[in-house]
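lol forgot to send this yesterday, sorry. struct tokens for the thing we talked abt
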């Protein structure tokens, strides 16, 4: 049975980065069995060249499971169990 996943809208997604002098950061969470992995990626841009890329992975506790609704390829509604996602709140100084 295949489900069509609901694509989440990315709030305030940046389509281009000023590479003359900026830090581009990406945060994501990879779900494992009983834990999650927080992945932090930084790209440091200077003079339109990638100066350095930093990738850090940290083990964090899983939030457990949740139920989500979905639709199969025949248009039938189903409920499926999936991992709960963390919400991200970013403060930039």
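and heres what i got for the seq, position by position
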């Amino acid at each position: 049975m295949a489900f069509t996943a609901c694509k989440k809208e990315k709030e305030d997604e940046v389509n281009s980065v000023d590479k003359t002098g900026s830090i581009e950061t990406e945060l994501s969470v990879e779900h494992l069995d009983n834990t999650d992995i927080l992945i932090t990626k930084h790209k440091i841009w200077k003079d339109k060249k990638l100066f350095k890329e930093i990738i850090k992975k940290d083990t964090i506790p899983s939030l457990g499971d949740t139920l989500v609704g979905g639709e199969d390829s025949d248009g039938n509604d189903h409920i499926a169990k999936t991992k709960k996602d963390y919400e991200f709140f970013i403060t930039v100084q």
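Residues 1-6 have pLDDT under 50 and may be disordered. anyway ping me if u want another try
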